[in-house]
Amino acid sequence: MPVSYPQNKKPELLSPAGNMECFFAAVENGADAVYFGLKDFSARAGAQNFTLEDASKATAYAHKRTVKAYITLNTLIKTLELERVVELLIALEELQPDALILQDLGLLHLIRSQFPHFCLHASTQMTIHNLAGVKQLEQMGFQRVVLARELSVDEITNIAQNTTMEIEVFVHGALCYSYSGLCFLSSMTGGRSGNRGRCAQPCRMRYQTSSGDGGYLFSMKDLLTISQTNKLITAGVHSFKIEGRMKSPEYVAVVTNAYRQAIDGRLHDEGDTIPRIKSVFSRETTHAYLFQEDYRQTKDNANHQVKAADAINPAYPANIGSYAGEVIDTRRGHVVIRADSDIGVRDLLQVFDNARAEPSLLHVKSLEINRKRVFEIHAGDIAMIASEQPFTPGARLYLISSQKIKETFRPKVPKKLITAKIPVNLEVNVRSDGISVKGTVRNVSLTKDYPVKLERGINRVIEEDSIRNSFSRLGETPFELRNFLANISEKLFIPLSMLNEIRRDFFQQLSVSYQKEKAERSQNIKKWIKEVAIEYRDSGKRFSGEDGIRLSLKIDKLYYLDHIPLEKIYKIYLVLTNETIENLIAHND
Q: CATH 3.20.20.70 spans which residues of the chain?
């Protein structure tokens, strides 16, 4: 049966983190989950990203606050990288992230075969845009799908109502001009593949048409849906995803806070919230495909242009900010402005002046009203700002950095963080002739007997809580006690110093056994990868030439098949046109 989402069920709020400061900004401002990438195999290679130690600390911090941690491994993986991926996956087992976000189906096969306990989410890079794709992923073992950004809310609703998969949808942030995951322009023009996390964003560059018209013709506006969250909740969306692993901590904090309020039904004044969001980073905004008719299906070219204009801003490709006022006069060393929002000293404004080809920056070093210095001005105020460059009256001002917002939303980074610990199940059996300890860590189980002579207790006897407390003191070890059981055969006395000595010895040996098993497992998995590669190579030999190359052909005429040695061809791709379809039907008849 499909998952049922009541209209009052709150979706998960999933926030981005490109570094540890962004991670804390997300948690502090109400994220239910945070997604972040490591130094390798992340689709945002340009972000600062996380070391394994960072990821361990972040995951442990999140779990103590009932926040989920998702790690992105969403690039395409090269064969030569598989051994590194294996080492990484073994390390991630110790972190216990709540899910891994994948794009590569080969990596999926590796994880399902060798690391089946990981929860897997299908990245938007997989371009899943219909129910058939979702059903296929479900059969493959994914628990969640991040749908392509090109879907409408009606299409999302249909998918959510007909699958048991969790549905995740982008609700805010940058959009791709191409279909999600299918853009090769960066790769073709500069050798930097988006599917390897290195998109150079050629869509944000200026282009000129053959007729001479120029502009940022492929630059998409940013997605903003905060006023429409109820429609996505009703559609059955399980997780609201905010884009922005390349963005600042202030961006993560402000946007997360705003969508937290919207989901909780506490967003009563969009008039303040949306300008605040735009001031931390925003291009022009759009609902994109979510709440519009699909303009791709229209045959009306004029209508097509209107709809496309809703999603693209050819005038400027970067951060615009929040509208803050306009220039009304220029005086020596100053500009006179009329404010449309709060502006403070040390804020940063961006000025769009029709007399200039590109916008200019204006640092607010001082503010004066009626020759009196002030630290802040408000909507309606007329004030002077020191400026070395003159601007034309009517030039528009946009706030792109606010000191007040930075101070309000600056995340508090803890001074000391612990790394994620490996859970241990422990059983201690106490008898008069000795103590037996059995510990289990994943696939490793160790039992050790300590033959000691214990006396019956008269005034003091050992109890389970005392034994538990002793074996819980794991200090700098990588372990933490998860489940504990003590069996005490009779009333006995055990010196605490003896228990502590036994604990230290046991966990030292358990650590050795665990590390040995990890190394053996790593080698076994790498051996399995090589065996799979050999099997795959051998299965294709009958389609290969003498040099071992398999041939695949793409044809657009069906009669070509009469002239091709089919026994030597691995695959044939037929371009479907009206002509080839008619020929194919006739051929089958």
A: 12-182+221-297
